[in-house]
Amino acid sequence: MNKRVIIVSLIAIALIIATIFKLFSNKKEVAAKIYIHDVNAAVLVETTKPLYHTFDSQFSYLGTFEPNKQATISSEGQGKVLSINFDEGDAIKKGSVIAKLDDEMLRLQLQTIEVNLDGQRKDEERYRILAEQNAAPDIQLEKIELAIRGLEIQKAQVLKQIKGCTILSPFNGVVTKKMVDLGSVIGIGMPVLEVTDISILKLAVNIPERDINKFKLGQKVEVTTDVLVDQTLQGTIKTISVQADKTHNVKVQIEVVNKSNELRSGMFGTAILANGTIHNALSIPRKTLVGSTKNPQVYVVKNGKALLTGFNAGTSDGDFMEIVSGVTEDDKVVIKGQVNLKNNSNVKLK
Fold it and tell me: Which helix (H) or strand (E) covers residue 120, if one does?
């Protein structure tokens, strides 16, 4: 009997060992089939060196369109949202009712105040007659007059609260964000909608300090975009910052009428000044640019690594951007493959 138990136990142990071995073998096979990206693998890129480019008699400056107006509309009242009349993407007119809050309790409170106010005014008439006949003390009349003033103040406060339960649009625009839904309970100051006006756009360009004297308030400027390829828009300089940034660039805003609404906030635009002089400067192709024109950056290859490098940009003609500082003519700048790069990535040149 003991011998049979020993044999069965040995067989069971052998099966367990075989199962464990099989599981480990399967795990290795599965792991071998799974693709694991090597973060240290070199990314294949193509580079170019900055070169001297001749910018013609027109000065060009790349910028970004900003909305004419953009505001987050907040509630001036509090209560349950009974109706909300707009969704994201809807056009909205100035004075349109965005949302309506429950104001039933406020209106009942207003009725109570008006009833008390009516009673106090009748008492005032009676006590005034009695006071004129010396049949009642003047102090009693004064108390009634003060009570009336207090009720009138309460009425004005409640009327303002009722008015705050109707949320209106302050200007024409498009709803770009919706923060509440029907049935939500909101408080004073809670954001309801974001409204953006793009009927007029402001092209914000950063102008190097050496060129800022070329810009004057009210000056007419031509504006081109990648969206409206065959059109040249007319813009007017509306603001010139009184303070330069850390890179010695001055922000200039150029107002452009967006008649067709084909332009959007955040798109690129190029401001063109005529009657300039021919300018030859170190430059790089615009397609090497990473990020925005407010903070232009490129990938520079050094010692087999791509380094994200910021630089000061000057004149632009749409295809090339002038390098004021930050990148030298000996640097290798990535022109293809930067979409797969991160700062300090390993790279391999084509």
Answer: helix 104-132
